[in-house]
Amino acid sequence: MPEKFELSLAALRVNKNLTQEEMAKEVGVKKGTWQNWETGKTFPSVPEIKKIETFFGVKYENINFYP
């Protein structure tokens, strides 16, 4: 069975050498919204999660949405 792994939104972003502002633009949200996701204050909607999955090539269940 494959081992489960989780990466935080911040780790995924940093691995792509992107700022929070650049990542927010990629997903189509404001920088503050992305920051809230990274800190766990708010969570992305399903359509936003799909964009994140597509951009990073990572499934939802492998993303840790808690800081």
UniProtKB/TrEMBL annotation:
<keyword id="KW-0238">DNA-binding</keyword>
<dbReference type="InterPro" id="IPR010982">
    <property type="entry name" value="Lambda_DNA-bd_dom_sf"/>
</dbReference>
<dbReference type="InterPro" id="IPR001387">
    <property type="entry name" value="Cro/C1-type_HTH"/>
</dbReference>
<protein>
    <submittedName>
        <fullName>Helix-turn-helix transcriptional regulator</fullName>
    </submittedName>
</protein>
<dbReference type="Pfam" id="PF01381">
    <property type="entry name" value="HTH_3"/>
</dbReference>
<dbReference type="GO" id="GO:0003677">
    <property type="term" value="F:DNA binding"/>
</dbReference>
